[in-house]
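Methods — Computational structure assignment.
A single polypeptide chain was analysed. Its primary sequence is given first, followed by the predicted tertiary structure written as structure tokens.
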Amino acid sequence: MKVKKVKDWCDATLTPLAWQRIMIRLLPEFRREGYFLHNINDESTLSESLLAHINRTLADLYQINLPTQLK
């Protein structure tokens, strides 16, 4: 899944800074996958493991999960 889909969903569903909050919180996981803040862009593809981390973070921070149709 592309970053843009998740980012747009966060902006529309949560708050405009939700995606940035998630990225900062998951920075170690992004780094393990070879992503750094300066090279994550809308066309970057998120792995299944990153999506799982994002879902857990959404549940922790906002008590919500990514919708299945988004995936």
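Note: Residues 3-62 form one domain.
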